Amino acid sequence: MKVLSLHSAGHDTGVAYFEDGRLVFAVETERLTRVKHDHRSDVALRHVLEQECVDTDGIDLVAVSTPVRSGLLRIPDMDRALERTAAGDLHHRTVCEMLGRRVECVVVTHEVSHAALAAHYAGWEEDTVVLVNEGRGQLTRSSLFRVSGGALKWVEKDPLPWYGNGFGWTAIGYLLGFGPSPSVAGKVMAMGGYGQPDARIREQLLAVDPEVMNDRELAERVRADLAGRPEFDSGFETASHVVATFQEMFTGAVREVLDRHVTRTGDGVGPIALGGGCALNIVANSALRAEYGRDIAIPPACGDAGHLAGAGLYALSQVAGVKPKPFSVYHNGGGESRADVLSAVQGAGLRAVAYDRSEVAGVLAAGGVVALTQGAAELGPRALGHRSLLGSPEVSGMRERMSEKLKQREWYRPLGAVMRDERFAELYPEEAPSPYMLFEYRLPDGTAPEARHVNGTCRIQTLGPDQDRLHGLLDEFEELSGVPALINTSLNGPGRPIAHTARDVLDDFAHSDVDLFVFDDLMVRGDSAR
């Protein structure tokens, strides 16, 4: 069966193509347009349909998450589809006009698409509790599902209070002057490490009328009231205490909901999966994993970009009866030809030479910064070695250089690190690995100080030998420097999405102080190294 899967409307749109349960190709719109959170799904759709690996004439089924860009799919009973999903149906089966013909179509409720992706990463294990938590879905801001008999069952809608979901993070960001962008929550969360929970702030936040989630005028009155109180002053120190307090409240609220629904056995609790943008909250994820003493399944593209796969996974598993196959996170686009890389390099006035791992490791050990691309990019917001900026976490000033100067991010935001599985197991023998950089770990004293957040933790990506280029580079870097990890942060300039092509990388960084660029089996010395 050949399935085209779309997230067609809203922010972070994208399109995927499945064949016989296997994800063949996927792409997020923003990677093609370089407009962050881009909604123009027609761009991604055209790109996917142009790929040689996509059988446009053989598509059997189209799956789309709500909301739906109806002009793109031309669904004749779109009103009926929205009526049914708004009433709580998990999906609506219909037809759409695609590629000059009618094709069967499954309209998947927004929350259900998130849940299907999370359940997929949990292996559809029986009795998995799936919490979808975001700013706003189609029907809810948070939803509780359970995998039962191989099917998704919607258990509870909006079980979380206002301070337990994405709305709350958006509200705190707005209160502190960060504006309404989908990127705000990540910026705000980073402040919490600099503050301490405050009982006075907690009391005032608990007193907020829960109707703020549904009444904009009330929400604005509450914001104005809080903004006038000294505990909510927008100065950094005060704001950090607000965020630390809110983080504690958020984590506690999520834990209380899961406590009511997890399956308890003599060995502990049953499987748990998290979906929706709030599953990117590393502090909460780590606290929950420690609390329940088990790993938690979280898709790396747990935000709205994940719908490009989630809708198709639901249609395959729950409608067509096809068991989807596991897929790599490295499925965003299809990589780049050598000819295109060389064209981009020459256009930037630079010269490419053959990749030399020893030279790259030497540049890093000497305190240089390397921009690395290889193959297809990662799905989701985490750079996991296929579109990464790398630097030594032992070189003084490296955090400032990479985060503040190269990427022009706020000074207080943390950086992640990548570490080989075997070194991680030595440092954290009792801890589960983190291949998608979705958990934090307390760094031993003296280890990777430039990747250490103010609270002593680091969000670590663990890397197996299947990622041979970066794994080998880490090995050689450690031989030269004695350092078991590299700073790994996303490869994008200020305010831009992660770079997708060599041209994107050079547009962002060709005239910066990046020392070396790696494009698959080619490398290019930067301006500062020539």
From TrEMBL:
Q: Which organism is it from?
A: Streptomyces prasinus
Quote the Pfam families the UniProt record gives.
Carbam_trans_C, Carbam_trans_N
Kindly give the Gene3D superfamilies that the UniProt entry links to this protein: 3.30.420.40, Carbamoyltransferase, C-terminal domain (3.90.870.20)
CDD domains referenced in this protein's UniProt entry, alphabetically: ASKHA_NBD_NodU_CmcH-like_N (cd24033)
Mind telling me what this protein is named?
Carbamoyltransferase
Q: Which InterPro entries match?
A: ATPase_NBD, Carbam_trans_C, Carbam_trans_C_sf, Carbtransf_dom, NodU/CmcH_Carbamoyltrnsfr
Stretches assigned to the Carbamoyltransferase C-terminal domain: 362-525
Report the residue ranges that make up the Carbamoyltransferase domain in this protein.
Answer: 6-61, 104-312
Family (UniProt): Belongs to the NodU/CmcH family.
